[in-house]
Amino acid sequence: MKSTLTKITTRYVETDQMGIIHHSNYLIYMEQARLDWLDHLGFSYRLMEEKKVLLPVYQIDIKYKNPMKFGDQITIKTTLKSLPTTRVEFEYEIVNQDGVICATADLTLVFTNATNFRPMKPLPDFLKACQSLFND
């Protein structure tokens, strides 16, 4: 399960004056998809935060290919790119109900100690779960 699929129906409140989904909402969709990916792996941000681990965004690169509109049924494919180190990297593909690619993205998060805000290695259980994805 290096990849998961998350389905979302776009809402009117997420559109801009042109009736197109505003670009800022893509980040929200990808975050929801990443939370789903973590759930499938058996982890959550809440669990990591309880263990004093934060995951701030280090870098994101989004390519907007085709517009999304109110009421579109989108699917976000979230894929773990490689084994985490102090960083964890995901790639995303967002498609609409017609299979048209609306956006692709690469995202890097940094495992950060919540006490001193220094980079750290991932939790051992998280790393072990991710390693199992690459052993299949």
Keywords:
hydrolase, 34% strand, Thiol Ester Dehydrase, Chain A, globular, 136 residues, HotDog_dom_sf
Structural account:
The protein has 3 helices and 7 strands, in the order E-H-H-E-E-E-E-E-E-H. It is of the alpha+beta class and 136 residues long. The longest helix is centred in the N-terminal third of the chain and has 18 residues, at 24-41. The chain starts with a strand and ends with a helix. It has a 5-stranded antiparallel beta sheet, covered by helices on one side. The mean pLDDT is 95. The protein has a single domain (3-135), classed as Thiol Ester Dehydrase, Chain A (Roll), CATH 3.10.129. The protein is globular. Keywords: Hydrolase. Belongs to the 4-hydroxybenzoyl-CoA thioesterase family. This is Thioesterase. It holds the Pfam family 4HBT_2. GO terms for molecular function: fatty acyl-CoA hydrolase activity.
Concise structural overview:
This protein has 136 residues and is α+β, with helices and mostly antiparallel strands. The chain has 3 helices and 7 strands, in the order βααββββββα. 26% of the residues lie in helices and 34% in strands.
Give the proportion of residues in helices.
25-40%
Going by CATH, the architecture would be Roll
**Radius of gyration, in angstroms, nearest whole number:** 16 Å
CATH superfamily: Hotdog Thioesterase
Could you tell me the CATH topology label: Thiol Ester Dehydrase, Chain A
Q: Quick check: average pLDDT?
A: 95
SS element count, helices: 3
Shape field? globular
Distance between the termini: 9 Å
- Quick one: biggest sheet? 5 strands, antiparallel
Provide the β-strand percentage band. Answer: 25-35%
CATH first level? Alpha Beta
User: Regions with pLDDT < 50 over 5+ consecutive residues?
Assistant: none
Which H/E pattern describes the elements?
A: EHHEEEEEEH
